[in-house]
Amino acid sequence: MRQPETIQIKGIREGLLVTLGEGDWPTILISLMEKIIEKENFFKGAKLALDVGNRILHAAELGILRDRLADKSISLWAILSNSPITEMTAQDLGLATRISVPKPERIIKSNDSSLSGDDAIFLRRTIRSGFKVVSNGHITILGDVNPGAEIIAGGSIIIWGKCQGVVQAGTEGNEDAVVCALDLNPTQLRIAGIIAISPKRKGKPQPEVAKIISGQVVAETWNPKSR
Amino acid sequence: MSAKVVTISSGKGGVGKTTTTANLAVALAQENQKVVCIDGDIGLRNLDVILGLENRIVYDLVDVVEGRCRIRQAMIRDKRLPDLFLIPAAQTRDKSAVSPSDMIRLCEEIRDEMDWIIIDSPAGIERGFRNALAPADMVIVVTNPEVSSVRDADRIIGLVEAEEKGPAQLILNRVNLALTKRGDMLSTEDVLELLAINLIGVIPEDESVIVASNRGQPVTFANNSRAGQAFRNIAKRLLGEEVPFMNLETNHGLINRLAKLMKIRGD
């Protein structure tokens, strides 16, 4: 009776973790050794932790196992078990009974306060005439977008610099997309297919946000207070 | 000796690439540098005319590339400045007669004997420009203070950056201070703000440039021309000297000059 599928092998930080499923000990031991011989190179020199589940194993059994593994140049360093007897036996043989697993609860906790956000690309350079930046996500540019350049985003566009090229945000019809720039003076601006041409600007450039308000592209001066 | 290969480009035609090439070559040769200029505008050659060497052409760039002559045979020595040479372009062929790797090979061949190799790029961004760009150690972009020429310069600068030949240097040509002052022309600051590269020279608009070019006697040969002075300053900057930018306002027109004289008197 062979049940090779009851043996699970996993790579962990400390080496390999082998989990043994149901089955009587001699049988499972045979299938384990078969598995090891099958992939001899993979196991050679490995540090092995063995999860034996609820089995009660005695010193003789564990000793034989350790010797057999050692023959294949595998060092057994830990036995994980739910049975206190097996644990004690393992400890008597100088084997560890725990592997330090990072506590999953902690990770979940820190995830709760960090927001995942959307994908965006970032460029720190001048986008010159004849060049194009295209992304399905958002686009962030630290630098100027010169006339003749094109910025095309599925999402929003943020330009920390002068924007004088053609910018298209929300190309897939996303009407929530916005275009922000320190100096928003594009040749042409499109959000979700709605086209706008910037009016002749008077006065000093100010940071602006362009978005769709009732079917029209509207550029508003960036106002931290209204946020 | 290992020459520096400088490519003069602009994208747009008619902004003064060839005039700049000729004058810069003359100015560098006047500083006792060994200079060869290569006309990259195959099929529409001009550099030979502006340098006044048209009637001495025997072999050209395409003859060298296709192995009909040695490179030395195609180099025309300028009689006015013995350190100045020209490799002319072929007039009867087109840009596809030369490849970028031909240009690199050619420059490598003469690099050891020269201080400067100045390549006059044709207008456009196609094969001719690629040929001129391929061997470049440094690219000088020439532009006029007009929107269309600045736009094309921006494109060229981007292409130069993409080829990792950047950052390009900028020469602002044909600056007319009177127009700028009236707000009818882009100012140097406007151009620099958009292009965001290092300015290496400003050439004032000067009738004598055209007259000199038509005579085949680049304006830099003349001592009294302001444009010629500007080119000599650029040559000095290329040689690592710190030369302050010319004050374009001085000597501007007879009335200004008179006004200035009066002022000095008045003081």
Question: What keyword list fits this structure?
Answer:
heterodimer, A: 227 residues, alpha/beta, Pectate Lyase C-like, 2 domains, five-stranded mixed β-sheet, 35% strand, B: 267 residues, Rossmann fold, eight-stranded mixed β-sheet, 12 helices, 16% strand
Strand order of the largest sheet of chain A: 5-7-9-11-14-15
Helical coverage of chain B, percent range? 40-55%
Average pLDDT score of chain B: 92
> DSSP helix count of chain A?
5
Question: What spatial order of strands do you see in the largest sheet of chain B?
Answer: 3-4-2-5-1-6-7-8
Q: What is the level-2 CATH architecture name of chain B?
A: 3-Layer(aba) Sandwich
CATH superfamily of chain B: P-loop containing nucleotide triphosphate hydrolases
What does this structure look like?
The complex is a heterodimer of chains A (227) and B (267). Chain A has 227 residues and is of the alpha/beta class. Chain A has five helices and 15 strands. A six-stranded mixed beta sheet of chain A has the order 5-7-9-11-14-15, with no helix packed on it. Mean pLDDT of chain A is 85; it is low at 103-109. An eight-stranded mixed beta sheet of chain B has the order 3-4-2-5-1-6-7-8, with helices on both faces. Chain B has 267 residues and is an alpha/beta fold. Chains A and B meet through loops of A and helix 7 of B.
Short synopsis of the structure:
With about 230 residues, chain A is of the alpha/beta class. Helices cover about 20% and strands about 35% of the residues of chain A. Chain B has 12 helices and 8 strands.
